[in-house]
Design brief:
By secondary structure, this protein is mostly helical. It has helices spanning 22-48, 52-58, 60-67, 80-106, 109-128, 133-161, 167-192, 199-205, 208-220, 225-230, 234-245, 251-266, 270-274, 280-295, 298-311, 316-340, 346-371, 381-399, 402-413, 419-448, 451-470, 482-485; strands spanning 503-506, 509-512. It has 22 helices and 2 strands. A hairpin with a 2-residue loop joins strand 1 and strand 2 (509-512). The chain starts with 21 loop residues before the first helix and ends in a 5-residue tail after the last strand. Helix 19 runs antiparallel to helix 20 (419-448). The protein has a two-stranded antiparallel sheet with strand order 1-2.
């Protein structure tokens, strides 16, 4: 879960008494609209940047290149300003993450979500009313600040308010809403592309719907018991816990949260703790999972799907239509992850997806290498359908593996005393590499041409080998038993687990044999 807080799980073999109450379901649906907003921002930029009206207003040189026959098919959209329109959101999100970590801990999850909603609304106003490129970029930066705050607070809110037995499914609800947001954006772009000359303004303005939903949700939901207790409001925290669990028998869970809060506050230097030898396996895995997640090439495809299909010779309508198809596949495949992650395990999903992603990307590279040259795009209907099918095959495998698991695995492997710092690093690395890919993709497409898919497929091989040899299975392992049952048993990572340094968390208490927490 993101930084700025702590979580608590029941001791091994224990489950706290809890009903799935309407207040929990409503709170989680409202909070997860933060994911909807993030997904909409990811999906909307690619469709808008393929619209001639938008390009004519802000990027006339790109519009000229797009319609000039002498320009290479692969280089029509190669423009740093155009890429900055997409990527500035993620750089702003990266910066905002540091502030969001503070507000989540000191002001609470609910207020942090409210701040995110306000940033989103102001950013939408700037984008929808943009008169020049500076106004457009400022709008994207404000949306990025919203992303930074929402990505910190929402997953943390979801994991803390949900009963233990449905926590995994409700946490993936955030990722599911991201995919629904992308699909919604693609559908909007498909409709607004026919409205001239202001269709693009409507696309950018409709982001206000999830922004308002998140803001209203943050106004009406209650803060989590963990957040209230962490800030010393014990009675209020207990009252909220009784309300969301639908029972008065909350003493065991309440005591566990109080103890976890005490421990979390005793950790004066969580980032320094994170660098200690015993925490190296979790840190290395968390950082590499975020880098690998971006180097699957998924965001390149999701950001720029309409632009990519345009490059391949699809007409504007067909390219947006194809992006809608990939968006729908993304949503459905994320549901597969919700169902299977606790049944077949994390490693199996990642390894199967590695094979599927590699084969689909190689197939796309071969088709483009043969059929799409610099100045001819003789993709017949059959070949065009094959490219869309291969892109969908790639997207589906990502959506049930690296998409949700890139976030889930770090959130369940860090020990309690470094979880805040660890997840802060996780979010920052993810946003940093999302920015890098967003800023570089169209230039890479211009220079590498079809080989860009060979580039990403080579990374898929590297990450699959890492999973095979270095990623332990964490399915059904309680967080407090991770050291004994996972790290100490792993052929490589066990060398980092010194007996005199490890922490034992369980039954509501923590001990540190070296005297330092």
């Amino acid at each position: 879960m993101p930084a700025g807080g702590f979580s608590v799980s029941a001791p091994s073999g224990t489950e706290f008494e809890a009903k799935i109450t309407p207040i929990v379901i409503i709170s989680c649906i409202m909070a997860a609209t933060g994911g909807l907003m993030f997904g909409y921002d990811v999906g909307i930029s690619g469709g808008v940047t393929s619209m001639d009206d938008f390009l004519g207003e802000f990027f006339p040189t790109v519009l000229r290149k797009k319609h000039e026959d002498k320009e290479s098919n692969y280089c029509k959209y190669d423009n740093q300003g155009l890429q900055l329109f997409t990527s500035s959101l993620y750089l702003a999100g990266l910066t905002a993450t540091f502030f969001a970590s503070y507000t989540t801990r000191n002001l609470g999850r609910r207020l942090t979500m409210l701040i995110a909603g306000v940033f989103f609304i102001v950013g939408v106003i700037f984008n929808g009313a943009a008169q020049n490129l500076a106004m457009l970029i400022v709008g994207r930066i404000l949306l990025g600040c919203g992303v930074g705050f929402a990505n910190q607070a929402v997953p943390l809110f979801l994991s803390e308010i949900a009963p233990t037995r449905i926590r995994g499914g409700l946490n993936i609800l955030f990722q599911l809403n991201v995919t629904i947001g992308i699909l919604f954006a693609n559908l909007v772009n498909y409709g607004t592309s026919k409205i001239h000359p202001w269709g693009w303004r409507l696309s950018l303005s409709l982001a206000g719907i999830p922004a308002v939903l998140l803001t209203l949700g943050a106004l009406f939901v209650t803060d989590t018991p963990n957040s209230l207790i962490e800030r010393g409001r014990l009675d209020e925290g207990k009252a909220v816990l009784k309300r969301i669990r639908g029972t008065d028998n909350v003493e065991p869970e309440f005591n566990e949260i109080v103890e976890a809060s005490r421990i979390a506050q005793e950790v004066k230097h969580p980032f320094r703790n994170l660098l200690q030898r015993r925490n190296r396996p979790q840190l290395v895995i968390a950082v590499l999972l975020q880098i690998f997640q971006q180097f699957t090439g998924i965001n390149a495809i999701m950001f720029y799907a309409p632009v990519l299909f345009n490059t391949l010779g699809f007409k504007s309508d067909a390219s947006l239509y194809s992006a809608v198809i990939t968006g729908a596949v993304n949503v459905l495949s994320t549901l597969v992850s919700v169902y299977s992650v606790d049944r077949v395990g994390r490693r199996m999903l990642l390894l199967e997806a590695g094979v599927q992603m590699f084969l689909s990307q190689v197939a796309i590279a071969v088709v483009l290498g043969i059929k799409v040259t610099d100045h001819s795009d003789d993709l017949s209907r059959g070949w065009a359908i094959m490219v869309v099918v291969m892109v969908c095959t790639f997207v589906s495998s990502f959506a049930w593996s690296w998409g949700p698991l890139g976030w889930l695995i770090p959130s369940e492997t860090f020990p309690l005393e470094t979880r805040s710092a660890g997840q802060s690093v996780t979010v920052c690395v993810n946003l940093l590499f999302t920015f890098v890919i967003a800023q570089a993709f169209l230039s890479m497409l211009c220079h590498l041409k079809y080989a860009i898919f060979v580039f990403f497929s080579a990374w898929v091989v590297v990450m699959s080998l890492f999973v095979l040899f270095f990623l332990p299975e964490t399915k059904n392992v309680p967080i407090e038993e991770m050291t004994e049952r996972v790290w100490k048993q792993h052929w490589f990572w066990k060398r980092f687990m010194d007996d005199d340094n490890h922490h034992i968390v369980g039954a509501g208490k923590i001990t540190a044999n070296n005297g330092n927490v």
